[in-house]
Write a structure and sequence with these properties.
The chain has about 650 residues and is an alpha/beta fold. The strands form seven sheets. A seven-stranded mixed beta sheet has the order 14-13-15-16-18-17-25, with helices on both faces. It has a six-stranded mixed beta sheet with strand order 6-7-5-8-9-10, with helices on both faces. Strands 22-24-23-26-27 form a five-stranded mixed beta sheet, with helices on both faces.
Length: about 650
Amino acid sequence: MTSQVSSPAEQADGADSTLVGEQRKPAGAKDVHRLDRVIIRFAGDSGDGMQLTGDRFTSETASFGNDLSTLPNFPAEIRAPAGTLPGVSSFQLHFADHDILTPGDAPNVLVAMNPAALKANIADVPRGAEIIVNTDEFTKRALQKVGYAASPLDDGSLDGYSLHPVPLTTLTVEALKESGLSRKEAERSKNMFALGLLSWMYHRPTEGTEKFLKSKFARKPEIAAANIAAFRAGWNFGETTEDFAVSYEVAPAATAFPTGTYRNISGNLALSYGLVAASRQADLPLFLGSYPITPASDILHELSRHKNFGVRTFQAEDEIAGIGAALGAAFGGSLAVTTTSGPGVALKSETIGLAVSMELPLLVLDIQRGGPSTGLPTKTEQADLLQAMFGRNGEAPVPIVAPCTPADCFDAAIEAARIALTYRTPVFLLSDGYLANGSEPWRIPDIDELPDLTVQFAQGPNHTLDDGSEVFWPYKRDPQTLARPWAIPGTPGLEHRIGGIEKQDGTGNISYDPANHDFMVRTRQAKIDGIDVPDLTVDDPHGARTLVLGWGSTYGPITAAVRRLRASGESIAQAHLRHLNPFPRNLGAVLKRYDRVVIPEMNLGQLATLVRAKYLVDAHSYNQVNGMPFKAEQLATALKEAIDG
């Protein structure tokens, strides 16, 4: 869904509205309180449709023009036992009339569809927040299943909150009594009733959701009609019930973005679009060799829809076959990609080493998740950095790029392709589950803003022998980039050997010569070290003594924490790495300017280990490995301690 952002002068309030302090009250309607931001969390059983509900609310919020950030959180099991704590699925959305960076630390509103959802999330809800509960699910058996001795709706434990008990199931069934659906079928629409209620509370548009439901259930018009009826019933319930005396308005974030056309986008979708854009800018067919794995599978699903752009997707029988096919496509002249998560990287490591040896462009997209082994398939982590850096036999250096936000995944994909194509090397792109599934507004770029990635293939001989004959040397290098020529199979006169055994410099013939091996190892390393990456930018408006250095998805929480500290009068500098191999050339000089360097990571200190080893800087780690992103307040507290220390 796209929306056009105009200047603030073009954003006018309706003529039928009047402003009263912080309230706007159309004639004959309930009070409307104006807020600058709201954090809502939908939570329920994994079969209650919380992800769909959150996604639809997000889409309408994006079309309205708010800035937003989301955090889907769901179980690894396909269908965990109903009504249990392990089966709780949630979706958190933070939206505002200004620039925001994270899904928010704590929800202002919790929608709990059953006792398990309430118990799993209540610890995150601050006192005074609103809690909407589906009272129909608070049965004795459901309460006992999650360890409640008595109903929290009756024992006073929720007295500190603004509690709204709503019989969502009953109201939904009543609204659909003329639909012809069975009671069980009608109950499935209760998430749409909840969505309608929240849409009324926060003045979200409704047309997009109704259009979506008609499209989604086009082959089952009775189901589409039922969901739309439930959605409208929820809206009308909010309008008429006395329990909701106030609705809320969050104005569009008109000043937060440059003028342009925006859409809501997730990290995996942005990566997919970035890959397609890169292939078009390079004028190369795009080939994806992949094996489904959470949380990377969405990229395979999305790219399979774009055959019209010359995209070919291959779902292999396993991880090894997926990358093997991709490397073969790279040899054949395609922009080759393989997608996976941490366990899949381990299986692909031998072929990545082969790509290093053959010096072919290959994009390895690692959408990180909690490990080791199968680990936490649906939770986020940043623990694959050292695996990407060193996880191959021998000296096999590979460039590493890391996006920092869901929308930034688009640009990161293009940057990874630029490096791979220019320097003839495999490239790691390290995203993670938080970026992959989270979403935010993205300005759709104009075509002329994208870089030219055009590739020149080898066309004929490139070397003259002592006897004057002209031959093709597959490992004769560009003096600037040290990249070898890219020769398409079948081109007359360009026949050459490939394989994993060490190559002779220039000719590419098999070589076991010690001096040649030493030269080739150092040359491959020099090629990576010489990659042109931008200098690190430091945000330091006050000449701070403490620097917080991050990479990847920690950007949002770190930046939010830095903003909080500066608002309270503290002085702190911030820098964020996109290129992790090679590091920016000025990184060492930047680090030496500060008395203290703090590196927050969702691992046990992997970037900190690299920084300390390379630059001999006493970098301090702040680590978290609980499967969830940092909270801004948590980081602000830790950084304040570093400043004071």
